User: What shape does this take?
Amino acid sequence: PTVAQGPLSTITLQRYLSSLVSSDESLREMEGLMLSIAMACKTISTLVNRAGINQLTGLETDVMGTRSGSQSNNGPNKKNKPKKNIQGEDQKKLDVLSNGVLKNALKFTGKLGLLASEEEDEALLIESALDSRYVAVFDPLDGSSNIDASICTGTIFGVLEDDSVDIKNEYKRNNDDCVRDEDAECVNTMDALLQPGSQLAASGYCMYSSSTILVFTLGGSHPVIGFTLDPQLGEFVLTHPNMRTPKRGSYYSVNEGNSWLWDASIRHYIDKIKRGEGQSKKRYSSRYVGSMVGDVHRTLLYGGIFGNPGDVQHRNGKLRLIYECSPMSFLVEQAGGGSCTSEGKSVLEVVPEGVHQRSTCWLGSIEDVEELKTYLVPE
Ligand code: AHG
Ligand code: MN
Ligand code: MN
Ligand code: MN
Assistant: This one.
């Protein structure tokens, strides 16, 4: 696709997308979705940057019987219980806020019939848009454990085509707007969310760090493209017109605190590359932020390999398949990189069984991922 001409920093996201749509009208709905996601990310960026000022750091609390934060009615200083999400994680205030911002932005596009979020127990069916072409999955605030230390966080999103419109309309006539696993009709409706990453129509992330950068791809012949938020303009401007991952890197990015729990094959691989005994004969340095968005963004730009391998205590690792592993693997592969599970399979071929299912995940430079695969023992 031809990118609008002119110095990069004058090409806003809006101008880029409208130039795409003028050459391919079928992208009209996707343009609306991307603009609403970008608007939500601008809002989340402001919330993250001002978290300390607005007392929005710390945990979301769930005072029994009263709204969180108000005086509980059964005696002073009742310990507020941290609110947990369906994954059993203590929710941060900003997890909940970011989720609300993104959910509303997507709902009000009127272009999405179904949403799944890390912070929503169940998928959300949107009555007003049941016959929409797309569904969306998202991690509203990734790396939220870093928020109180002002270390980089992000938002991850994926957009899938929805081929279950008629079933959704049938479901709408008979049910409320919550999609429950056990209800027969909605299992089909849920299918639109439970697609392998290879089916993504778009995926991307927004990183909230020293700058706010929106990176996404529409797949197919489209590049991986990056826009940086210009705070003076309040606009995302084009800064990375065609992101390609280096074929080989010299960074590995994994939580070595779990290495005593890893499979021997993975310990062996990391040991080799850190000693300069891998294929490139270079000694690899360790870089690990603890926010997938930050670690993947650096890997995308500098090369190397990122992994959340799983271990004897967490066979499927920590990352969730549909709104962390799939969108990030889709994007890195579109940028010429590679990705695989700890069994050496393609992440993009893993068919999800539930919206919060976890998966092991490695991604990064194609030659680094291919070298890792020579160590992995398929299950
Ligand atoms: P989230 O904050 O959305 O729950 O995701 C956190 C994830 C991911 O961002 C990061 O790569 C990983 O957790 C880090 O896990 P460990 O701290 O176990 O390494
Ligand atoms: Mn979380
Ligand atoms: Mn996450
Ligand atoms: Mn999250």
